[in-house]
UniProtKB/TrEMBL annotation, chain A:
Pfam families: Thiolase_C_1, Thiolase_N. This is Thiolase domain-containing protein. The lineage of its organism: Archaea, Methanobacteriati, Methanobacteriota, Stenosarchaea group, Methanomicrobia. PANTHER family: ACETYL-COA C-ACETYLTRANSFERASE, NON-SPECIFIC LIPID-TRANSFER PROTEIN-LIKE 2. Keywords: Isoprene biosynthesis. Residues 233-368 form the Thiolase C-terminal domain. It comes from Methanoculleus frigidifontis. SUPFAM superfamilies: Thiolase-like (SSF53901). Residues 6-218 form the Thiolase N-terminal domain. InterPro entries: Thiolase, Thiolase-like, Thiolase_C_2, Thiolase_N.
UniProtKB/TrEMBL annotation, chain B:
This is 3-hydroxybutyryl-CoA dehydrogenase. Coiled coil: none annotated. The keyword Oxidoreductase applies. The lineage of its organism: Archaea, Methanobacteriati, Methanobacteriota, Stenosarchaea group, Methanomicrobia. InterPro entries: 3-OHacyl-CoA_DH_NAD-bd, 3HC_DH_C, 6-PGluconate_DH-like_C_sf, 6PGD_dom2, NAD(P)-bd_dom_sf. Gene3D superfamilies: N-(1-d-carboxylethyl)-l-norvaline Dehydrogenase, domain 2, NAD(P)-binding Rossmann-like Domain. It comes from Methanoculleus frigidifontis. Residues 268-364 form the 3-hydroxyacyl-CoA dehydrogenase C-terminal domain. Residues 92-265 form the 3-hydroxyacyl-CoA dehydrogenase NAD binding domain.
Length: 377, 369
């Protein structure tokens, strides 16, 4: 299976509406692909908060309205922040019957008035057990960060570095939410407290945006990127049912399956995109994916391994922190970046000759994880 | 409005840029004449449609393009409706001043498609203003869109650059002498039909109008900070302001997706006449030791459901600005109830101007500018 077309919009607080963003990403993917829109057999759409934030459900039919008289099967997938990697995974399962599939992810989070984004995003957690006690999303990650910092004796400086590196990477990505923002370590340190020990700069922003890719069972051109494996795994959502509060089991399980499927080991992977919805989750990802042992991620960051010129460049697009986190589009934006890098089309932020790239996309506080491994051809 | 690909004969209800089927550009199509092909009278209220009964009509134009239109008037099937076309020709608008509000108003206007001329003092301040405007727009649009939108912005350092504007919004410092001078200068260079609006937050429209050759075309147009988030514009009517001037400005405010309210010229208009006495009273409460500033802020936030308390808001506005508006109210009404609290002047004297100086009633630490 191959990815033959990719497209996305700018991420940020945008004026475009939910359907307009979706259309722009789909159009860009079709223009990038050798296939025409009429070659597409089915569409998977990934969107998290269209109902509560935009008053828009039955979103597959909105996609149909954007493609008049195509009348193909379209289906929406929702697994919180992991929606788009799961949509891709499900699309892959359908390739036998529908050989050319578009996957489009979108979120419109700013300029909405129905309910507050904090309340809406909290719907990814256990409403009855946790949210009613005030466990909003940043608070859940704050508890994880506190556990991690005390278990491994790590200061907040390590998290500040994650934020800083992602912002520097975003300064090379014209489509990133914070492309224009000059961020200093001082600004990160001074930023207001959100939920201790996390500050504003530990958190990804509310972004609008969309991303789309087209996959096919057959190779279409030399710009194609091969999908070696896509795996998803789940876990209990409430922290109260977890054994470990310093790692995400769903990431471990899904990534082990990908490694088993392909014989690839982490040291062979040239570039990766991880789900840094909060800075702490980037540390967890590096460990859960097997790039280092538990508690060692801060060293990996300190020794420059994850920088664009390092051994395993991470989040060259700026990550969720600085490229932005339009939730339903995030997993596909990660794929967009890996495909761009594997094709050697990343311009100023191109890393040196990558062959294998991996994405890790999680939902809620690790309740779902989608891992995708790709190879340039 | 439909957006149609003339090649593929497909149409969209959303403003798409290109046809996804053939890659060609699309053409906006809008007819003014529609035939009613279906209608239903609705008796159940819903959010945004509380007033019942109303009618929902399905309309069709010459090309067979359909649209849904709500009405309170009953139509019969087969009736022909003429839908007024919105003004395609956008007015050209001038903005004077590149301070906090001036640059925000200019940025907002060009995002809504108004060709805008921004008057700055020097080439240097022009550069700063353009970069500020670009940053504001880039937050909400892609680089390509930002660049396209910026095409509608023209900069001039001379009043003569505003000569052809249909409306000029003056957003200079809140000082009657400065504003009168500006109004006098622009009324000498502008075409006779130009409307002269001021973004003043408290000053008299009539005093400003007196400095011009066209008092009937002088009006207040008071935006609120931050412009892209605050939905209100106070439209302030002077004793000589004509109905035509008023209607033009209401039209523009509505097209900008903001809510105009009509205010007869009076010191502080409505918002500041209500707000500043409240802030002043809060400062008096603090002076008298009735409650702490934190508790007074809590009282207003939790007891009256305001998003910010008076001390937070005063700091955000700037204590110097608060004092100057209070002084206008005090002098104009000559009523001791508006006498500015002593503590306000004391803080200003100590250089504590609020958020912008890092400290006012509260301390903010270093402010990134």
């Amino acid at each position: 299976m191959y990815i033959n077309g990719i497209g996305r919009t700018k991420f940020g607080a945008l004026t475009k509406t939910l359907p307009e963003l979706t259309y722009e990403a789909m159009l860009n993917a079709v223009e990038d692909s050798p296939l025409d829109i009429t070659d597409i057999d089915a569409i998977f759409v990934s969107n998290f908060l269209g109902g509560p934030l935009n008053g828009q459900l039955h979103f597959n039919s909105i996609i149909a309205s954007l493609l008049p008289s195509l009348n193909i099967p379209i289906i929406r997938i929702e697994t919180a922040c992991a929606s788009s990697s799961v949509a891709l995974n499900q699309a892959i399962n359908c390739l036998e019957k529908t050989p050319n599939i578009m996957i489009v992810g979108v979120e419109k989070m700013t300029g909405t008035h129905l309910i507050s984004p904090t309340d809406a995003i909290a719907m990814a957690g256990d409403y009855k057990n946790d949210y009613e006690q005030g466990l909003i999303f940043p608070a859940a990650y704050a508890l994880i960060a506190q556990q991690y910092m005390s278990t491994y004796g790590i200061s907040h400086d390590a998290l500040e570095q994650v934020s800083y590196i992602n912002h520097k990477n975003a300064n090379l990505n014209p489509l990133a939410h914070f492309y224009h923002k000059d961020v200093t370590v001082e600004m990160i340190k001074q930023s207001p407290r959100v939920a201790s020990p996390l500050n504003l700069f530990d958190c990804s922003p509310l972004s609008d945006g969309a991303a789309a890719i087209i996959i096919s069972s057959k190779k279409q051109s030399d710009r194609d990127v091969k999908i070696l494996s896509s795996r998803i795994a789940t876990d209990t959502i409430s922290l109260t049912q977890r054994e470990s509060l310093t790692s995400f089991n769903a990431t471990k399980i899904a990534s082990r399956k990908v490694y088993q499927d392909t014989g690839v080991t982490p040291d062979m992977i040239d570039i990766l995109e991880v789900h840094d919805c909060f800075t702490i989750s980037e540390l967890l990802a590096l460990e859960d994916l097997g790039f280092c042992r538990p508690g060692e991620a801060p060293e990996l960051i300190e020794n420059g391994s994850i920088l664009p010129g390092g051994e395993h460049p991470v989040n060259t697009d700026g990550g969720l922190k600085a490229d932005g986190h339009p939730i339903g589009a995030t997993g596909l934006a990660q794929i967009y970046e890996i495909v761009t890098q594997l094709r050697g089309e990343a311009g100023k932020r191109q890393v040196s000759d990558p062959k294998l790239g991996l994405t890790q996309n999680i939902g809620g506080i690790g309740g779902t994880c989608g891992i995708t491994l790709m190879e340039g051809i | 409005m439909k957006y149609c690909c003339l090649q593929c004969h497909k149409c969209w209800n959303h403003p798409v840029e290109k046809c996804i089927f053939c890659g060609q550009g699309v053409t906006p199509v809008e007819e003014t004449q529609y035939r009613v092909i279906g209608t239903s009278e609705v008796f159940v209220p819903s959010t945004g449609n509380e007033k019942v009964p109303y009618f929902v009509n399905i309309l069709e134009d010459l090309h067979g393009h359909k649209k849904i239109e709500k009405s309170f008037q009953k139509y019969e099937i087969g009736d022909i409706i003429d839908i007024q076309q919105n003004d395609v020709q956008r007015d050209q608008i001038g903005v004077i001043g590149t301070g906090l509000l001036g640059s925000q108003i200019a940025a907002y206007l060009i995002q809504y498609g108004y060709p805008t001329v921004l008057k700055t003092r020097s080439d240097d301040s022009a550069k700063k203003a353009v970069s500020k405007i670009q940053k504001q727009i880039a937050k909400r649009m892609s680089d390509a869109e930002t660049e396209a939108v910026l095409q509608s912005l023209t900069i001039t350092t001379d009043y003569s650059g505003l000569a052809d504007c249909d409306v000029i919004i003056e957003a200079a410092a809140e000082d009657m002498d400065i504003k009168r001078e500006i109004f006098h200068s622009i009324s000498q260079v502008c075409k006779p039909s130009t409307i002269l609006a001021t973004n003043s937050s408290s000053l008299s429209i009539d005093d400003l109008a007196g400095a011009t050759d066209r008092p009937e075309k002088c009006i207040g147009m008071h935006f609120f900070n931050p412009v892209h988030r605050m939905d209100l514009v106070e439209v302030v009517i002077g004793s000589m302001t004509s109905d035509a001037t008023k209607d033009s400005i209401i039209g523009i405010v509505t097209a900008l997706n903001k809510k105009p309210i009509i205010v007869q010229n009076s010191p502080g208009y409505v918002v500041n006449r209500l707000l500043l006495p409240q802030i002043n009273e809060a400062v008096l409460l603090l002076e008298e030791g009735v409650a702490s500033k934190e508790d007074i802020d809590s009282a207003i936030k939790l007891g009256l459901n305001h998003p910010m308390g008076p001390f937070q808001l005063a700091d955000f506005i700037g204590l110097d600005i608060c004092l100057s508006i209070l002084e206008v109210l005090y002098q104009e009404f000559n009523n001791p109830k508006y006498k500015p609290a002593q503590l306000l002047s004391d803080l200003i004297e100590q250089g504590k101007l609020g958020f912008k100086s890092g400290e006012g009633f509260y301390t903010y630490g270093k402010v990134n500018r």
